[in-house]
From TrEMBL:
<keyword id="KW-0963">Cytoplasm</keyword>
<comment type="function">
    <text>Endonuclease that specifically degrades the RNA of RNA-DNA hybrids.</text>
</comment>
<dbReference type="GO" id="GO:0006298">
    <property type="term" value="P:mismatch repair"/>
</dbReference>
<comment type="similarity">
    <text>Belongs to the RNase HII family.</text>
</comment>
<keyword id="KW-0464">Manganese</keyword>
<dbReference type="GO" id="GO:0030145">
    <property type="term" value="F:manganese ion binding"/>
</dbReference>
<feature type="binding site">
    <location>
        <position position="107"/>
    </location>
    <ligand>
        <name>a divalent metal cation</name>
    </ligand>
</feature>
<keyword id="KW-0479">Metal-binding</keyword>
<dbReference type="InterPro" id="IPR024567">
    <property type="entry name" value="RNase_HII/HIII_dom"/>
</dbReference>
<keyword id="KW-0378">Hydrolase</keyword>
<dbReference type="GO" id="GO:0005737">
    <property type="term" value="C:cytoplasm"/>
</dbReference>
<keyword id="KW-0540">Nuclease</keyword>
<feature type="binding site">
    <location>
        <position position="15"/>
    </location>
    <ligand>
        <name>a divalent metal cation</name>
    </ligand>
</feature>
<dbReference type="InterPro" id="IPR022898">
    <property type="entry name" value="RNase_HII"/>
</dbReference>
<protein>
    <recommendedName>
        <fullName>Ribonuclease HII</fullName>
        <ecNumber>3.1.26.4</ecNumber>
    </recommendedName>
</protein>
<dbReference type="GO" id="GO:0043137">
    <property type="term" value="P:DNA replication, removal of RNA primer"/>
</dbReference>
<feature type="binding site">
    <location>
        <position position="16"/>
    </location>
    <ligand>
        <name>a divalent metal cation</name>
    </ligand>
</feature>
């Protein structure tokens, strides 16, 4: 399927990573690519190997006209809910760009509230280069944060499952309880903390 780009001079792509995990921030990225400096091999971050993602991460940061990371921490996710926290994080990523785009393409089926035109693109991380680039920046950023968290709480295995509710993670949560970085509004964490 070919994506038809809207007519715009300056397009930013936006994507998020980390809606499903039980721990850590939801991380978003906004990227404006440089048409004069193309990047080969951009794709949905989940379809790339870790090695390829890390190489592209450095290349995007180097070659993009501008990029920014936005985030919402676990407390905010618990306060707002994951959908609204994700929208806030996307707004922050776009606001953080050093250039103002005239069009923002967002992965998924809804757009955050932005001061410029925006369009949601289903499967955008596979169809739109700018969104692919954003998905790579967001994923590598969040994965590295999970690896850092793993050094603080090695018994949970965050470096392996990145905070997603795997059987191993659920077992450790039941056994050890939640860390301060867990999302207390998520059902498995609530159960572990006896908040239900």
């Amino acid at each position: 399927m070919e994506f038809v780009y809207p007519k715009a001079n300056c397009i930013a792509g936006v994507d998020e990573v980390g809606r499903g995990p039980l721990v850590g921030a939801v991380v978003t990225a906004a990227v404006i690519l440089d048409p004069a400096n193309p990047i080969e091999g951009l794709n949905d971050s989940k379809k790339l190997t870790e090695k390829k993602r890390n190489a592209l991460y450095d290349e995007i940061k180097e070659k993009a006209l501008c990029w920014a990371i936005g985030r919402a921490e676990p407390e905010e996710i618990d306060q707002l809910n994951i959908l609204w926290a994700t929208m806030k994080a996307m707004e922050r990523a776009v606001a953080g760009l050093s250039l103002t785009p005239d069009m923002v393409l967002v992965d998924g089926n809804r757009c955050p509230t932005l001061p410029m035109a925006s369009q949601a693109v289903i499967k955008g991380d596979s169809l739109v280069q700018e969104i692919s680039a954003a998905s790579i920046l967001a994923k590598v950023t969040r994965d590295r944060e999970m690896e850092a968290l793993d050094t603080l709480y090695p018994e949970y295995g965050f470096a392996k499952h990145k905070g997603y509710p795997t059987a191993f993670h659920m077992e450790k949560l039941a056994l050890l309880g939640a860390t301060p970085y867990h999302r207390k509004s998520f059902a498995p964490v609530k159960r572990a903390l006896n908040l239900e």
